[in-house]
Amino acid sequence: MQKISLLIVMCIMFYFVGNSQVQQEQEIFLKKSTSKDKTYNNNKVDQKATFIGGDSELFKFYKNNSTFKVNHFQVPDKSTYFNLYIDEKGNVYDFKIIKSVDDDHNKEIERLVNIMPKWNPAKNNNKTVKVILLDYITFQ
């Protein structure tokens, strides 16, 4: 019984220690969408929104435009995760930090999103739609 209690206490400690690195979610609105249309999950539409040139070009965009060094591989404790909101025309109009490394990286993400070019818009039922998608940047 003591071993089970000790195991439970250790699990709780690991949970809080692991999550203490994650800062509170932050939502920063860039350009509010003027459309009242529904926003879809990018993974649930017929044709996903994509960065022009694909994921490799998106990585190049981050790498070439970031003031920090960007790592190609995902490293959970060094990655900042964020949602991108893309409208029917392919414009990124909002983002939300989901998991933060620190405030400097959050500001860098905001700067990169502000200069990000248009995406290929998502389609659902042969109509372009607004979507939200999850992305990350791993800083070295």
From TrEMBL:
Domain of life: Bacteria
UniProt-listed SUPFAM superfamilies: TolA/TonB C-terminal domain
Gene3D superfamilies with a match to the protein in the record: 3.30.1150.10
Official protein name in the record: Energy transducer TonB
Species per Swiss-Prot/TrEMBL record: Aquimarina celericrescens
Top-level taxonomy: Bacteria, Pseudomonadati, Bacteroidota, Flavobacteriia, Flavobacteriales
